[in-house]
Amino acid sequence: MENLKQIEDFVKSFETVNIDFDDCDSFEDFKQEGIEELDSYLQEDFGIGYEDLDETLKKNFIKLLRRDWNEYF
After folding, report:
1. Backbone angles phi, psi at 59, to 5 degrees
2. pTM above threshold 0.85
3. How many CB atoms sit inside 10 A of residue 37's CB?
4. How many CA atoms lie within 13 A of 34 on its CB side?
5. What is the largest CA-CA distance in the chain?
6. Which terminus of the chain, N or C, has fewer Cβ atoms within 10 Å?
7. Residues in Cβ contact with 57 at an 8 Å cutoff, skipping those fewer than 6 apart
8. Could you tell me if 18 and 9 are in contact, meaning their C-beta atoms sit under 8 angstroms apart?
9. d(Cα 16, Cα 37) in Å, to the nearest integer?
10. Over the stretch 13-51, which tens digit does the pLDDT of each residue have?
11. Terminal C-alpha separation, the chain
């Protein structure tokens, strides 16, 4: 990936504020919403999808989602 550093920085700083916590009944719902949102931004800004990320970035993103979920609930 040519913009790897930009993509890494983007994923690490992704904000989950656009996800409506009240619409999510479980962490799995929240995680799916977060992945879909990130995928949309990645497609728009970098021309790649969530599935194109390496496993480390995916794991770090899920950790970010878990942290935000735990802070909210």
Report:
1. -65, -45
2. yes
3. 16
4. 27
5. 38
6. C
7. 7, 8, 11
8. no
9. 9
10. 888 877 888 889 999 999 999 999 999 999 999 999 999
11. 36
